[in-house]
Specification:
There is one protein chain. A hairpin with a 5-residue loop joins strand 27 and strand 28. The strands form 8 sheets. The protein has a 6-stranded mixed sheet with strand order 1-2-30-29-28-27, with no helix packed on it. Strands 14, 15, 16, 17 and 18 form a 5-stranded antiparallel sheet that branches. A 4-stranded antiparallel sheet has the order 3-33-32-31, with no helix packed on it. About 0% of the residues lie in helices and about 45% in strands. About 50% of the residues are buried. It has a single domain, classed as Neuraminidase (6 Propeller), CATH 2.120.10. By secondary structure, the protein is an all-beta fold. The termini are close together. The protein is globular.
Length: about 450
């Protein structure tokens, strides 16, 4: 892709100070800040030419007034796999579509879950899809059942299935940790290493059955980030283990794994308590294939003081030299926004953050990362500036945004001058790259699932 250098005047609309954050409701996660006057900044930036990205293609159209979160991955042969949710008659299922012509035409959908409605509709957490080397397709997601004593009346389990015929059909699913003590599992993520090892992490909420036959919280056990792995293609999984007990209860967990025994888990950790508690992003690392993990290391000491959840995590990717790349959001005073950093020592320390999208008021939005075959870093993120009530308050269900992308080459951020989508996106979900292709998937405000693909 071509790039040019231009002088750009950036109007930061609805600039707001993070110091005025106030949690209005623990159920909605609403944040209401004070409004300040817009400011205009001038800076010299590199521009990424996005003309090679295809016009957005509709993968699916959901009639349900909710976010059918999609996901995407690309095989070594350039085949594109798009996973998405759809809800009919109050039952949510997961479907897979594939493309072998660079995303121009997609196959008929294949239903992934064999049990009807065995899927929790959640636009915050997309089902995860990963590929093996011999036609295996691995998928994990959360289901949900009504439990009146649990938070928001829902109890979620972590579900896993695999396909051995390149996604043409799927095996009966299994419940992760089904033989262990009861616990809710949510905000999950999965990675597959170069040898086919499957690595999963999630937020875990211990539960127990009460005398009335319903689930309730089990406060005698620690909640937090948990992990498991499978070294036999998902036939069996290890006993789950607690990685950290002080995690933000509603922020995405992310994983990454390579072929050198390195496994990484990122999450938003809670430091301290009360109104002065800090919620910064951390990474725990393993150099022995997930057998043991280091203690959590802050990606950066942001000092984000906030007593609430912003529902965004820190996606990661590992390049061919073993460098860990990570992107994240913080709402910290004087450094609100999205950032990117690297680690060359297995997650024990991180480089100085590179700002991706910053301002006096940057509402919590999603950023994702991938690496192409040349180890070029690709980033994509939501920008809701001027498009939604995010200018005055942030509430997850009201998110609208434009989707932007950028590359990082030799330490330089090369940003796109135009968004990928043609209208308002409701939720950005993922980006992936392989075999000379880069694909981005998201959900539009009309609940359609879109994809755009470029050659790189």
């Amino acid at each position: 892709m071509n790039r040019v250098i231009v002088m750009v005047a950036i109007a930061v609309v609805a600039a707001v100070g993070i110091s005025s954050f106030a949690l209005m409701s623990t159920n909605t996660g609403e944040i209401i800040p004070a409004i300040q006057e817009p400011v205009v900044l001038e800076e010299e930036i590199s521009i990424l030419d996005t003309n090679s990205f295809s016009a957005p293609i509709t993968i699916a159209q959901s009639m349900k007034a909710a976010q059918p979160a999609p996901n995407v991955t690309i095989g070594d042969d350039g085949k594109i796999y798009v996973l998405y949710q759809d809800t009919v008659d109050e039952k949510t299922d997961i479907f897979l579509k594939t493309s072998t012509d660079d995303g121009q035409i997609f196959s008929e959908p294949v239903r992934v879950n064999l049990i009807d409605g065995n899927v929790a509709l959640d636009g915050r957490v997309a089902p995860t899809i990963q590929l093996g080397d011999d036609g295996e397709v691995y998928v994990t997601w959360a289901n949900s059942r009504y439990e009146p004593n649990m938070f928001m009346g829902s109890y979620r389990q972590l579900v896993f299935t695999q396909s051995f015929d390149d996604g043409k059909s799927f095996e009966p699913s299994i419940i992760i940790g089904a033989e262990e003590l009861h616990s809710g599992k949510y905000f999950q993520h999965m990675s597959v290493d170069a040898f086919g090892g499957i690595h999963m992490a999630w937020l875990d909420g211990p539960a127990k059955m009460n005398a009335t036959g319903y689930m309730e919280k089990d406060k005698s056990r620690d909640r937090g980030v948990k992990y498991t792995q499978s070294l036999d293609g998902g036939v069996t999984f290890d006993t789950t283990k607690l990685i950290d007990a002080d995690a933000c209860p509603c922020c995405n967990v992310q994983t990454a794994a390579d072929g050198e025994g390195n496994v990484y888990i990122s999450w938003r950790k809670v430091f301290g308590s009360g109104d002065t508690q800090v919620r910064d992003m951390v990474v725990a690392s393993s150099t022995d294939g997930g057998k043991t993990f280091s203690g959590p290391v802050k990606i950066h000491d942001d000092g984000f003081q906030f007593k609430g959840c912003v529902h965004v995590g820190a996606p990661m990717a590992i390049d061919s030299e073993g460098t860990l790349h990570v992107a994240w959001y913080t709402g910290a005073t004087e450094r609100q926004g999205m950032y990117y950093a690297t680690s060359t020592d297995n997650g024990q320390s991180f480089s100085e953050p590179m700002p991706i999208l910053t301002g006096d008021w940057v509402p919590p939005q999603r950023i994702f990362i991938t690496l192409d075959n040349d180890d070029t870093v690709w980033l994509t993120w939501e920008d809701a500036t001027g498009l939604s009530i995010n200018e005055k308050a942030w509430r997850y269900g009201d998110t609208q945004a434009l989707i932007f992308t950028a590359q990082v080459i030799d330490g330089e951020l090369i940003r796109a001058d135009n968004p990928i989508n043609e209208s308002d996106a409701k939720s950005l979900t993922n980006i992936d790259s392989d075999n000379g292709l880069v694909s981005i998937v998201w959900t539009e405000t009309d609940n359609s699932v879109k994809i755009s693909t470029a050659e790189n």
